[in-house]
């Protein structure tokens, strides 16, 4: 890379490497429950790796232009640094977009794929325009207060979510760097359709979606599951877009089931 973005990495366990890529605009600590529990009681079911992605958490943003390909190449560099040749890659929301970019650019390094509350299709014109609106606004204001004002935490979670979880998500959003928010919004707006790339993959996959996810709904999850050659679809009842936080045990069970299918 011409501009370093070495991420802070959370890691736990031994066994099959499982890299978890966080949602927008949260840091890697959204995966705390998965880091603790997916490795299993003996800690040897998986080596769970959760990096902060470019600009989020304590990872520097760097000066490269917005691109999910750059984020995917950051991940390849991370795996090199960790001595991991192939990994199961899991991404939720934006993390799913990065996982699909990685599958497109580095397919030989993919041992399995978890796509959670994400989609393989491109943004509509309206969605792209909204991303640019948010990017411009947070940069102009030098603040991510707009995300709180527009009730992003509440919109990501199912109605009736535990207020403590809503508060925790709101706090993580509030910590995001405005420049990183703008960079990620513009990178996501420019992403290509990935259905053909998913169809070409020959690794086991899990597609997970919250039943009440309005950001990337069940119809998008079904499209991905149907495109993939070896995918299991898990629909988690009564949860929204952040299924790993809202229903961690059900989410973790789907991930562990995939790990058992990985060769």
TrEMBL record:
- Record carries keyword Hydrolase: yes
RNA-binding as a keyword?
no
Q: Domain named AB hydrolase-1: which ranges?
A: 18-254
Concerning InterPro entries, the annotation shows: AB_hydrolase_1 (IPR000073), AB_hydrolase_fold (IPR029058), AB_hydrolase_sf (IPR050266), Epox_hydrolase-like (IPR000639)
The UniProt GO MF terms for this protein read: hydrolase activity
Q: Which key words are in the record?
A: Hydrolase
Q: What is this protein called?
A: Alpha/beta fold hydrolase
Organism this protein belongs to: Kitasatospora saccharophila
């Amino acid at each position: 890379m011409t501009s370093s973005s070495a991420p802070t990495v959370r890691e736990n366990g031994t066994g099959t490497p499982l890299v978890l890529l966080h949602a927008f605009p949260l840091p890697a600590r959204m995966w705390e429950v998965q880091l603790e529990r997916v490795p299993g009681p003996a800690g040897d079911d998986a080596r769970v790796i959760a990096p902060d992605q470019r600009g989020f958490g304590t990872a520097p943003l760097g000066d490269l232009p917005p691109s999910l390909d750059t984020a995917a190449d950051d991940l390849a560099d991370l795996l090199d640094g960790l001595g991991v040749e192939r990994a199961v890659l899991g991404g939720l929301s934006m993390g799913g977009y990065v996982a699909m970019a990685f599958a497109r650019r580095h397919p030989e390094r993919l041992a399995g794929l978890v796509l959670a509350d994400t989609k393989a299709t491109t943004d509509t014109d309206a969605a792209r325009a909204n991303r640019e609106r948010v990017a411009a606004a947070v940069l102009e204001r030098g603040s991510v207060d707009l995300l709180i004002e527009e009730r992003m935490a509440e919109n990501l979670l199912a109605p009736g979510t535990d207020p403590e979880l809503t508060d925790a998500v709101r706090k993580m959003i509030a910590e995001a760097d405005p420049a990183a928010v703008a960079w990620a919004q513009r990178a996501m707006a420019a992403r290509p359709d990935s259905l053909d790339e998913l169809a070409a993959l020959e690794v086991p996959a899990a597609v997970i979606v919250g039943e009440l996810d309005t950001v990337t709904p069940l119809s998008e999850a079904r499209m991905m599951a149907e495109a993939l050659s070896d995918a299991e679809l898990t629909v988690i009842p009564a949860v929204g877009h952040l299924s790993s936080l809202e229903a961690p045990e059900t989410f973790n069970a789907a991930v562990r089931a995939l790990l058992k299918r990985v060769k």
